[in-house]
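Q: Convert this sequence to structure tokens.
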Amino acid sequence: MKILAMLPALLLASPTTAQSADPHSVFTLRGECQSFVAGAEDLTSLCAGEVMQVVYTDSRMDLSIWTNDPTGRFFVLSGTASAEEGNLVLAIDQITEGKDGSGNNNVDAKASGKCTLAGDPTAGPAQYTCDATDEAGTSYRFAFLTDGSAPENMFD
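A:
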């Protein structure tokens, strides 16, 4: 339940909050972090095995990647969500690195790239695949396979 405790800080720190958009849906998905690389840093072993997907009323979306780093470090891939060939696609335009779980020590960077969610996580395992590059040239790669359990709706 680490995510539930961090939800208020994350929503306050989210880049979409500045646009006054309200969260439309907030889901926690559990599974296996297959790979997570930020620049030269391989974070796969620190990946917490759960992500949070927030879709806002203006079609923006945040995909939050939690780590088991003792500092509470996390990453948020943010952009516009759409459907492509039956998959959910996140067109990434910003990456936020939370240096700790407070939401007060975040570093935002403009970015480009995309995440694709192949499959329906409410009907079984689904695959997130993300590739992005920030304005400093740092590349980010993330692959996550949900475990097939029902996503946890944070609004319930």
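Residues 2-7+24-149 form a domain with the Porin fold (CATH 2.40.160).
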